[in-house]
Amino acid sequence: MINQKFRGYVLEVKSSQCIWVYIDQEPSMGIVILNFEFDHLFEVGDYLEFETTGIMTLSIPPLLQVITYEIIEEKKQHIMKGILKNVAPPLVLETENWGVVWVHHEGSLDLLGLDRSVYIIYNGMMTRSLPPQISAIKIVGLEYL
Fold first, then answer.
1. Nearest Cα to Cα of residue 104 among 95, 93, 114
2. Which residues of 67-77 are buried (b: 16+ CB within 10 A; e: fewer)?
3. Which of 3, 44, 50, 136 is the Cys-Cys partner for 105 at CB 3.0 to 4.6 Å?
């Protein structure tokens, strides 16, 4: 097997040895689970460049074993997880921490539907309005949750 390099955002930290990452480079875009042999400290929103063995499970999402990684600080973003309650602009997201949030997004939302779990990648800016509003950089759907 040939080692493979990827880049992506940390969506969830499950433990010090397991994280969920959204790979944001073509042609391998999507969510993967990364496993580490030793404890590592990651934060949601970290942007990683990582190398794997190239071996991937057939599970959804697939699991990968990481050989090396680097956190790229200048590309760090904020991540918000929630359930879509309205897909007409603005999107209405129901979240655990913020309640209802309006999400402004330019681009196609063809694959998104009501009551679908999503991750919103955004720059951290949020209005002080009720409900609060953010502008999405990327919306990642969770097909398997």
1. 93
2. eebebeeeebb
3. 136
